[in-house]
Amino acid sequence: MRNSITLALLKNRKSLILNDIARDITRPVPHRRSPFWAAEPKTGSSITEVPWDETFASHINAMGYEMRASSGLREHAGEERLLPTLGGKMKTVRISWAVMVGFAMALSAAVASAQLNSGAQTIALNANLAESLSVTLSANTVNFALSAGSATNAGSAGITATTAWTLAPGRNSVGVYAYFASAAAALTDGAGDNIPSSAFFISDNGGASAALTNTVAYGAANAGLKLATVPITAANRSASRTDAMTFNINLTGGTLPQLPANTYAGTLNIQAQATP
Question: Does pTM surpass 0.90?
């Protein structure tokens, strides 16, 4: 006899339940001739012939098989298993072991591929871009060879100040300043002889020379010079500027023509400020 497995076809849910543990009524069935269908894997070439049933055919097609009718009749024998269905009637179905193995494998794959998702866990991200404002100088020393009573005593070298910033919204300008800590003694010999800030001149980016006689954001009163003011917009909140400075000391004013010979030293400061 040909091995077979009985399936209960549940019409209401259109599902197949294996009769592995169900109680059934088994009776031998003699050889007979009946219409049959061929169940063919859509991606393979082997064909398994099974008795025809519309509901069974639709399920086999859903599992990846194509059902096509045979033009002839098929001699087959085996055993029938009668099972009650949801409709209350007895239903007889026959299918070969080869088809059932393929069906079981497809069913297992479908169950295995079902997704199982965990709950989402969150990660808080915080990134801070701090404000910054800096000034760097191309050099830190300038020497002067003074001539008594001369208006022209140029520094030995120019210095370039680079001001860079990254600012928050609300800032509206960046100012760059040069200044001394004292207006009366910008440079001094330490013995009471001084060169005032009014005698010290800076030319910025090739412009006209100006004495440090203004009161600015830093330093002593009347001892500074604003080199630049940069308006800040959304387009330049992070930017930079350069100020190329050259220097001169004028010894023609007041008592400076009588300045005694000595070494005079002082400190010029360059500083930037973002406002407000």
Answer: no
